[in-house]
Amino acid sequence: MKKIIEFVKFSFVGGIMTILNLVLFTLMVEFLKINYLVSNVLSYIIAITLSYFLNYIFTFKMQNISRKEHIKRIINYFIMKLSLLALDSICLYLLVDIFNLNVYLSKIGLTITFLIISYPLSKLIIGKRANNEELS
What span, in angstroms and rounded, lies between the C-alpha atoms of 35 and 116? Predict the structure, then answer.
């Protein structure tokens, strides 16, 4: 039951961050006239930064870890998320420029796909006990 609640919380945070990501992306593309790939990177970085802290506090309820361990988790989380961003941006480019699909439908589809992929990776990085045992 605990894993289900944790996944629901992660999905809730992910949903909020997905909406934020999509809103920022749209604002940057439509109103600020920023290239869609640049907008993708900027909106993603803002969303994952907020996501880390919300998941750290709300989803995985991490407490009593050393500052060194916390910094290590932040670095690992951002490496993982930036790797996913690179893959996301490549896929977005392929869908929009090569396959001529709608930029917004492509962005939504990729965002959902990467939300699903990121749960087990985020749990692995953020959701560990202080002694490095995985939460159950």
Answer: 26
- Give the C-alpha separation, 22 to 47, whole Å: 9
Work out how many domains the chain is built from and give that number: 1
Residue at 31 is within a domain: yes
Helical spans, DSSP H, in 1-136: 2-26, 36-54, 67-93, 103-126
Three-state DSSP at 109 gives: helix
Higher-confidence residue: 6 or 113? Answer: 113
Dist CA 13 CA 3 (whole Å): 15
**Quick one: pLDDT at residue 8?**
86
Judge whether 20 lies within some domain.
yes
